[in-house]
Design brief:
Layout lengths: L1 H4 L3 H25 L3 E4 L8 H14 L10 E4 L6 H11 L1
Length: 94
Amino acid sequence: TEAAQRGDRLAIELISEVGRWLGIGIANLAAALDPGTFVIGGGVSEAGDLLLGATRRAFMSALSGRDSRPIPEIRLAALGNKAGLVGAADLSRR
C-alpha cells in the first residue's frame, strides 16, 4: 500500500487487482444477501481510493440485476485497521 501511494506502478497494479477481485466478491454477496452497504476495513482499507475505485468498478460490472435493485454503497470503515481492536475492547467491557 505504501509503495502504491508513492506511485509505484507495480504496486498500483496489484492493488487494482485486489480491488477487482474484492468487487466481484462483493457483487456475489450483494446478489445473495441484498445489503444496503458494504464496509471495507482492516489493513486493506489503508489503500483508500486506490482500492475502492477498482472495487467499485468491478462491483458495478459484476452486479446482477443492477437495473432492478438498489445499488449498495461501498465505503471504508471509519476505524480502518483498528476496527477489530476497538470492537474487541468494546466486547470486553460488557
